[in-house]
Amino acid sequence: MKLDCGLTICTICVGLVAAKQTKRQAADPLITKYPFIVAITHNSNFVGNGVIVAGKWILSTASVFANTPDTDYQAHAGSSNYLQDATVNGIQRVLKHPQYNPQQGPGNNIALAQMNDIFLETQLLQSVDLGINDVPTASTTMATFGGTAQLQEVFNELASDEACIGQLNDEANKRIVQEGLAYCMTLSSDYSVGPGDLGAPIMSMDFLYALYADGFVATRIAIYRSWIQSTMQENP
């Protein structure tokens, strides 16, 4: 693991360990820009997005993993069309944040999934850089399959001030933004967010700042950095 610190932003770079890749494809602009994104399926049905954080680990929102058993999930990586030319890796187990309880509210909506095999690092398949600074606002892009087979890019803004909170409809979502667990997300286009965007990475300056959760809120990443690191270290 390598720690890079710039003037204003520090990032954790978790390298991938070499392993097998099932297929290869010609480079596509979006998968080249977002080589860490994965499409997550359950019994071959698309359920959400995620990112590779280490050779055998992916990160997403806990709400993506609502079904059982964990072993029925798969991650499709390395392709702008997850149904074609993707590296498919089965999930061994899902570890949700210990304070995630959807019956009590949408807070702590984050989970790690341990893969069966180690992903092979290529130009189209790499680990994401986790942003360390918990910034209050950011101009960002969201990479998402959006419930389709094709990767898309959506421009948006993250915020956590009272103005953005006032625009949210759900009181529970307002509360987790006020508590610093999530951001409000405002779209810069006419894209319609939906269940197919769950777990989508929200990026700024090539660093992961949030994962789309639901209802125009996104789980903040920096505050969960220690949990991400310790969970992977304690579960080799």
From TrEMBL:
Q: Which GO terms describe its biological process?
A: proteolysis
Q: Which GO terms describe its molecular function?
A: serine-type endopeptidase activity
Q: Which UniProt keywords apply?
A: Signal
Which residues belong to the signal peptide in this entry?
Answer: 1-19
* UniProt xrefs under InterPro entries: CLIP_Serine_Protease, Peptidase_S1_PA, Peptidase_S1_PA_chymotrypsin, Trypsin_dom
What Gene3D superfamilies is this protein classified in?
Answer: Trypsin-like serine proteases
Q: Which SMART domains match?
A: Tryp_SPc
Enumerate the spans annotated as Peptidase S1 domain: 16-233
Classify the source by domain of life: Eukaryota
Q: Which residues cross the membrane?
A: none
What family does this chain come from, according to its entry? Belongs to the peptidase S1 family. CLIP subfamily.
- What is this protein called in UniProt? Peptidase S1 domain-containing protein
